Amino acid sequence: SSGINAESGKGIIDDPYNEFFVEEYGEGGMLEQVQRKYEFVYDTYWEKRYSLNPHQVPMFLGKFAEKVLHTGKYLNVIRQCGYNVQCPDSREIKYTLVEREYIECIETAYGFASQRLLNLLLDEHKLMERLMSIKSFFLMGQGDVFVHFMDMAEHELRKKHDDIVSSRIESLLDLAVRSSVAANDPFKDDLKVDIVPYDLITQLFRIINVRGHTLGPSEQVYPAFEPHASGLTGLEAFTLDYRVEWPVSLIVSRKSITKYQLLFRHLFHCKHVERQLCAVWQAHKQAKWEPIYTTKWHAAAFCLRQRMLSFISNYSYYAMFEVIERQWHIFTQDMQTVKTIDNVLAIHNDFLETCLKDCLLTTPELLRSLAKLQAVCVNFCNAMLLADS
After folding, report:
1. Which candidate, 214, 216, 217, 164, places its Cα nearest to that of 194?
2. What is the per-residue pLDDT for 32?
3. Most CB atoms within 10 A, among 35, 161, 174, 236?
4. How far apart are CA 336 and CA 333, in angstroms?
């Protein structure tokens, strides 16, 4: 029982003969080296550091093995943050016919470890403030940032993605952030720019393939969606990244950042299309009294432009307010009642998954149809702006 006591009482495995049912991979020193070298590997490495060996689990602890594992992991997280922590009720766990005796020990240790880590994340590492910062950038909660950014960076982002200098785009984004309401965000310096060599559709299909979903005949990735075939521009390749330190990366892991990136790329492209349609609307408004614009052809174009603008504006409103803001409200309400770190992980994941689903990012056929409509809108805008020039 010494392994159980060490794991659930201090978060340290004392198992020189490999008899304990929780297995550890890697040493603490190696963990620290990994953390220093690769900021975002740490959370993934932590997930894989401990695992259960089902063949070693005592029969009387079968239902509580996961809880022992989580208790030890939580205590170890706290220790990795530099705190010397030990469960106040760390009695030796022994098998008895009275099940309640050892269950109480495990439950007490689990409750203490989870609550201590929860307080550490919420209070000392300001988890909610960090999540609000991520939302304001990735989910466009601060709309003025990207209005300023597109005013400055649109010409640069129209280049081929290979020709774009990331540092220049990052400087423009930083300038846009500091000249907007987001300048007061204490975590704004953790925001980064990334130019990826694939568009949103390609990224989504890669994720689907990694998850093991077999695409049907109508779901195959079209050559037009491959980056080299489509002549990927900066507007299609641009995304955000975010530096997250331990232990916040326990919640905001690389998987979570990827989901935020998918939502951002989707919203950013919608805003780009809407911006293009607004530019055409302004051009038409200024020139509609000229004789050339009195033909039936131009009247039809004006009507089509208005229908396109109405569609894109309504979809953007739906995604940002009917989906994201509504789900964020539910998420913040649930966060006020969380009791354990498992609850935080679950409701944060539910928030992201629901946003992805309701924004069509988990339905390939609907997303492809939307992407085609957006492409038609962009081609129409280019044609009308070219005609005006």
Report:
1. 164
2. 47
3. 236
4. 5
Three-class secondary structure of residue 135 per DSSP:
helix
Pairing of strands 191-195, 238-242: antiparallel
Bridge pairing between strands 50-52 and 191-195: unpaired
Round to whole Å and give the CA distance between 132 and 122: 13
Q: For the chain, how big is the Rg over CA atoms in Å? A: 26
Q: What is the DSSP letter of 239?
A: E
Identify the sign of the CA torsion 136, 138, 140, 142: positive
Please state, rounded to an integer, the average pLDDT across all residues of the chain. Answer: 78
Residues 363, 341: Cα–Cα separation, whole Å: 30
Name the least confident of 13-27, 153-167, 329-343.
Answer: 13-27
> Cβ neighbours of residue 8 under 8 Å, at least 6 residues apart?
68, 71, 72, 75, 87, 90, 93, 105, 106, 109, 110, 113
The mean pLDDT value for 259-284 works out to 91
- Which residue is it, tokens 């500091």? 178
Q: Length of the chain in residues, anyone?
A: 389
Average pLDDT, integer, range 268-291: 81
